[in-house]
Every structure is written in structure tokens, then in C-alpha cells.
Amino acid sequence: MIDLVTTGWLTTDDIVLEDGTTSMARPGGGALYSAIGAAIWGGRVGVHAPAGETHAEASRREIGAWGLDTAGIADARGNGLELWLLHESDVHKQQVRKLGSSDPLSLDAERGPMPESYEQAKGFHIAPQGPDSSIATARRLRAAGRVLTMDILSDAFIDATRYADLAFLADIDAFLPSELEIQRIWAPDRIEDWLCRTAQESGTHVVGKIGAKGSLIAEGGTGRLTHVPAWPARVVDTTGAGDAYCGGFLAGLSSGRPLADCGAMGTVSASFVVEAFGALATRRPSAEERNARLAAVTDRVTAA
């Protein structure tokens, strides 16, 4: 049985760190990193995403070997989404689409339907993809008993203004943009005010991922704000940290955990991802190590 599903893009990443260290042609993308973040908390997690035919067979093999279900990974024409991930500092990095890459938006049509086994999952995370696709996916998946979360991109190769109208929040339980995405699309004077107001007006939980400072979680309806700190991880590669946070958050929300616990679970998932170089280098921690980090993060959660 599949417990949780992530749906979005897979990528093939050439990662270049600030010190010149590289990792080439590695499976990545929001659908993969968020699935890993969810799987750290147990259960069976499926990935619903298109992979370019050049990389599809190897991607399914390697992703399956990590322990994720790959029945939802479809073959897409061409090379799929190929990216240079260029780290200029601990904070600043660029995603640059390679010349041989497929057009990202064309891949949304090639994701195909979810396997029937995925449709019965209790929780779904809509990872970065084209805005029209992510909004339509939320509308289609909205059903009683399903928990839905969504993350977005504001990169130059998509029209992020499509997200400016927040009507789509009615179809999801939690929205998890980064601080940079909030600034680029909605440009609030204070992110805290925007989070509280959006959560109050929509009734949806709204999470601002604020990098090394952790996350701010505004409760749907009340707008009550909670700060969850980051874990002091031994950072190797920050690629996918925000996606892994989303996966851990989904694992908590779909299990009925309090919002503060969901944020702490997201933080713990991200902490293991940043300690590895590339998504599939992430190690599966023991339950004892994972839960020790969770307890330490939870102890430092505060009202904001």
C-alpha cells in the first residue's frame, strides 16, 4: 500500500558547490527530494513524475534502490529537465536549464495519470511544476480524507504571476513557499504579516520556509504564528532542503500531528538531506536518531 505520494518534476542535476566540488548527472527535483523527506518518517512513498527517456531507466533503478516506489515515474520524450545547480554561497544559488533539456512545462503533460495504487494514498504533496499543472492537480486531488500540500517555484522559466491569485488555496491543506518566492510574487513589507493574513483569509495553513532561520507556520483560520528553528546540521549541499521539509511536513500533517510537530518533522527531514551530496546520497536514519532530532527541534519551537 502506498501511504504518501509526491507529484511534480524529476530533474537530472549537475551540482557545483562553492568550493568547486561537483556531482554530475544525479537524479533530483522537487518530487524526489520531497519523497525522501516524507520517507524518512516511514511508510511507503510513491513518486509521480516524468523522467526524460535518456535517464528514465537509470532514475527508476536508483530511486527504487533508495526505497521509494517508482510505478508513477513515466518516460518523457527527450532528455527531461536537465539543470546546472550552481551554489555561489550558503544562501545564493542558481538553477540553470541546460541547452539539451526538455522544456519544463511540456513535461507536465507527459507525467501521465497516477497509478491506481497511488490514488488511495492518504497524503499528497504537489511539488514544483508548471503553475497551471499544480493548480489543476490540487483541484483534481481534492477529496474528503486526503491531505494535500503544495510548494511552488518562482524561477524565470515559469510564469509565477499565475500564483498571485491565491484562490487555489481553497483546494489544499497547507501551502509551503519559500521566503524568496513570497517576496518575488507577493512582495509584502513583512513576511510575518503576509503569512498570518493569508492563513486567516484562506483557512489554509501557510508555511514560510526561511532557510537557515527555520520556518514560520501560520495556522489556517486563526493566523496564529509559530517559529520552528533549523537543526544545526553538518551542511554539505543545501539542494532540495526546502523540498525535503515539505515531505516531512506532509508526513506529520497526514498523521494528524499538531502543526508545530509537522514543522519540526520537516526540519528534521531537511537536516538529513543537507548532510548529503545529492538526493539519493541521503541516508535513512534510525528511528532513534530521527526522533532525537525531532525532540530537540520541538523543544525550541516558539510562538512568533
From TrEMBL:
One of its GO terms (molecular function) is kinase activity. Keywords: Kinase, Transferase. The keyword Transferase applies. Residues 25-280 form the Carbohydrate kinase PfkB domain. This is Carbohydrate kinase PfkB domain-containing protein. InterPro entries: Carboh/pur_kinase_PfkB_CS, PfkB_dom, Ribokinase-like. PANTHER family: PROTEIN MAK32. Pfam families: PfkB (PF00294).
